[in-house]
């Protein structure tokens, strides 16, 4: 029997651990401890459980466990085992699985905090104190200078908490503007984001569903915006707890501040080494070096020079593994003496961190320095391919050296990616600008991101959605950075070209409103770009507008694109544009507009490879066959399209295309068939779909059930749908309110039903596309019944009264 986890393979029968470089030496006790941790990858093991696993029936001292656990950590490296202070140890690496079996996905509501865990050494007292504060106060800010270890302590504290809604780290370090905090929140929490929405309202509604803990990390450079958002969320979500790290307090009412100081420099209990020395010793030993008591005076002197700042000590340890402790101590002494007067030395520890960065940087060969400077343009993490594109082919050899010197870190969430700590990144950007290289590096970065997301559109066609998202989601921060850079340049053609390739990212991440706003911001500059970029931008507009229920806007984009694509690009983008316009015209008032498009689509179907777009094409053609009277063949073709959606790993596409088809079937009068088809996939929708698609599917089912007279079943479907949809005033939310109105009608509450219909009518009147088919059918019949029950005059009065109510009134009226 074997277990695979990350880069390691555990051979249980042979009692061997195989790593990237081959056999890993483990003692028998360390092997047993590792086996116990891997057997409980979601669990927290206390010392009794670990004693039972490695020393069954024996009496063992606590420090024996610590020694073997330290050896195990040293063998594996960081990112696999963490200490939960006062409680035990926890495995936090990639989920173990059998060879040949894909790594299982984590539970959605577990949060993401374990991706960011590191070894929290010599901070037990601080972590315990902060944990107690978080029990008593809803907002605790860990404040301290850069590099002091705020994130490490904060993640240790956050991990010790349990919350049904998850414990989530919101990383603000890569944001150049506080305007992007909203996007960081909804992306981290996987909240659908559509047009006409108030983002914080969506986030608050999401967080109210289950108690959660949010850790806002690196707030100092966006302090004002972060404070405003945190204050709003705390006011809206009573059960929420927030932990923040910042170099300055947030200034939010009720904020409790914990000042995290550098490691203590006074003598400690461990053979005379203070906490700073013990941390430095740990870092040196993790690199494979051994120390003796003879080294302690140098360690203490080095700790004093660096004022106990964690990041500075870590970089010193990296240097010590190469040139020795004495040489590191002497070189840092010279570096500190040579600091220019214009460095900010208000706080000695700021001076120490800058000195450590400068010292580490000056030790690098010039070509390696150039790589570090160039890497500063990456927001968040970056891939090796990205580094090569920006810093040149030599970057591959340089990154290993930068990792060894603690200037670049392996990303804990994805071991194939890297990242710079925020302080290192800002130092690198400063050096990049000073060297006159910033413009070139950012241009290369934008060009790489453009190519990357252009490939994402092609790859999406045949790549399962889950793999696609794991591949391209990590570069979301880099996409936003490249958008900001190209938008600010005098020549806007590059911005248009990049925006034209962003479609799939915004759709897969359910960032519909952000995507639509981004695309629309590029439209005025489109004439400056190539004809190809203009066509792709039109296609992007159509795709994103359609999921925002804005078919009119989408049609304008696709009609401007299809002609050029038809003449110049007979590949997947042409097919995609043709399928998109076919669907849009199918739902138009004059359905005859779709007929020539259906013929063209049928003519080219045989040329289309197996893909997600072809799956959509099959359902579109099946829908038109059904409309033309050939219902059996049309249904069979729709089923073939559904099967191809499954084959290509596009379950969302399967649900969406089926909803389109059932809406047409209902509109044409066969509501029983529409209901049967919608209910047939409901188990899969519940298991695999986003909450947005689940609410849509249940809402349609409720409308169909109302139509066929199954009122109790319809009400049950509505009551399941309503809490899932975001109460944001979007078109999809209005659909839920209209179902609520019909529920009230059948319960005999005609007043509430009329008021709700007035609220919905007022907002739909301002929607350029009006109601879609299912909602229009429902609304017309409901209006007739309410007018009959109340009298035309009274119904009109109540409807007009409802038109003046707001969404909070709607929420109260819709409550069942």
UniProtKB/TrEMBL annotation:
Q: Spell out the InterPro entries in the cross-references.
A: AAA_22, OmpR/PhoB-type_DNA-bd, P-loop_NTPase, Sig_transdc_resp-reg_C-effctor, TPR-like_helical_dom_sf, WH-like_DNA-bd_sf
Sorted keywords for this record are: DNA-binding
Domain (OmpR/PhoB-type): residue spans on this chain: 1-93
List, alphabetically, the CDD domains matched. trans_reg_C (cd00383)
- Residue spans binding DNA: 1-93
**Name of the molecule in the record:** OmpR/PhoB-type domain-containing protein
Organism this protein belongs to: Devosia nitrariae
Source organism lineage?
Answer: Bacteria, Pseudomonadati, Pseudomonadota, Alphaproteobacteria, Hyphomicrobiales
């Amino acid at each position: 029997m074997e277990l695979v986890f990350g880069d390691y393979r555990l051979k249980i029968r042979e009692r061997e651990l195989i790593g990237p470089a081959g056999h890993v030496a483990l003692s028998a006790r360390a092997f047993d401890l590792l086996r116990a941790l891997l057997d409980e990858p979601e669990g927290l093991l206390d010392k009794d459980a670990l004693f039972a696993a490695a020393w069954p029936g024996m009496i063992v001292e606590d420090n024996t466990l610590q020694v073997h656990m330290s050896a195990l950590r040293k063998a594996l490296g960081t990112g696999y085992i963490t200490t939960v202070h006062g409680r035990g140890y926890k495995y936090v690496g990639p989920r173990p699985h059998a060879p040949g079996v894909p790594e299982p996905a984590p539970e959605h509501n577990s949060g993401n905090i374990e991706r960011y865990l590191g070894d929290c050494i010599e901070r037990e007292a601080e972590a315990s104190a902060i944990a107690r504060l978080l029990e008593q106060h809803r907002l605790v800010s860990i404040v301290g200078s850069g590099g002091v270890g705020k994130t490490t302590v904060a993640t240790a504290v956050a991990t010790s908490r349990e919350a049904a809604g998850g414990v989530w780290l919101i990383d603000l370090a890569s944001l150049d503007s506080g305007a992007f905090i909203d996007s960081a929140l909804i992306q981290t929490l996987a909240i659908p984001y559509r047009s006409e929405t108030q983002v914080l309202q969506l986030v608050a509604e999401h967080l109210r569903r289950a108690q959660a803990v949010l850790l806002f990390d690196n707030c100092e450079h966006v302090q004002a915006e972060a404070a405003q958002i945190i204050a709003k969320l705390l006011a809206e979500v009573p059960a929420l707890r927030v932990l923040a790290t910042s170099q300055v307090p947030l200034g939010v009412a009720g904020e409790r501040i914990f000042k995290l100081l550098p490691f203590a420099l006074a003598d400690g209990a461990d053979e005379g080494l203070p906490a700073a020395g013990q941390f430095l010793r740990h870092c040196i030993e993790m690199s494979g070096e051994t120390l003796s008591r003879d080294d302690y005076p140098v360690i203490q002197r080095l700790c004093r020079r660096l004022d106990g700042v964690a990041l500075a000590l870590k970089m010193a340890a990296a240097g010590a593994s190469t040139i020795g402790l004495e040489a590191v101590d002497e070189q840092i002494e010279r570096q500190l003496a040579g600091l220019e007067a214009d460095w900010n030395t208000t706080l000695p520890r700021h001076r120490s961190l800058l000195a450590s960065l400068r010292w580490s940087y000056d030790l690098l060969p010039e070509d390696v320095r150039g790589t570090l400077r160039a890497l500063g343009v990456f927001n968040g993490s970056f891939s090796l391919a990205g580094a090569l594109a920006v810093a040149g082919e030599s970057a591959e050899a340089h990154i290993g050296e930068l990792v060894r010197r603690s200037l670049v870190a392996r990303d804990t969430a994805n071991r194939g990616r890297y990242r710079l700590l925020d302080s290192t990144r800002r130092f690198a950007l400063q050096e990049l600008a000073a060297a006159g290289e910033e413009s070139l590096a950012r241009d290369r970065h934008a060009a790489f991101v453009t190519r990357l997301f252009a490939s994402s559109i092609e790859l999406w066609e045949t790549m399962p959605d889950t793999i696609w998202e794991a591949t391209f989601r990590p570069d979301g921060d880099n996409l936003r950075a490249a958008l900001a850079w190209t938008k600010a340049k005098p020549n806007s053609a590059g911005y248009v070209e990049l925006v034209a390739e962003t479609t799939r990212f915004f759709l897969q991440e359910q960032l519909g409103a952000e995507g639509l706003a981004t695309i629309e911001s590029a439209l005025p500059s489109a004439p400056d770009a190539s004809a190809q970029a203009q066509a792709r931008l039109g296609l992007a507009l159509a795709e994103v507008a359609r999921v925002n229920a804005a078919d009119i806007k989408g049609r304008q984009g696709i009609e401007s694109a299809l002609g050029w694509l038809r003449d110049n690009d007979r590949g997947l983008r042409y097919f995609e544009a043709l399928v998109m316009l076919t669907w849009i015209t199918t739902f138009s008032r004059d359905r005859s507009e779709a007929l020539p498009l259906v013929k063209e689509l049928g003519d080219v179907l045989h040329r289309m490879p197996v893909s997600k777009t072809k799956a959509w094409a099959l359902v579109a053609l099946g829908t038109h066959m059904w409309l033309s009277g050939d219902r059996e063949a049309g249904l069979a073709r729709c089923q073939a399209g559904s099967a191809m959606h499954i084959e290509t790993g596009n379950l969302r596409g399967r649900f969406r295309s089926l909803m389109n088809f059932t809406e047409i079937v209902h509109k044409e009068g066969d509501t029983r068939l529409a209901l049967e088809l919608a209910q047939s996939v409901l188990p899969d929708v519940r298991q695999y779909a986003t909450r947005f698609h689940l609410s849509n599917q249940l809402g349609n089912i409720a409308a169909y059930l109302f139509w066929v007279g199954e009122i109790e079943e319809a009400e049950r479907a509505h009551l399941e749908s309503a809490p899932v949809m975001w109460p944001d005033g979007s078109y999809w939310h209005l659909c839920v309110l209209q179902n609520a109105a019909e529920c009230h009608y059948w319960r005999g509450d005609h007043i509430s039903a009329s008021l709700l219909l007035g609220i919905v009518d007022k907002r739909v009147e301002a929607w350029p596309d009006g109601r879609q088919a299912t909602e229009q059918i429902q609304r017309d019949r409901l209006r007739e019944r309410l007018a009959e029950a109340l009298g035309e005059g009274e119904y009109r009065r109540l409807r007009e009264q409802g038109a003046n109510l707001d969404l909070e009134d709607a929420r109260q009226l819709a409550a069942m």
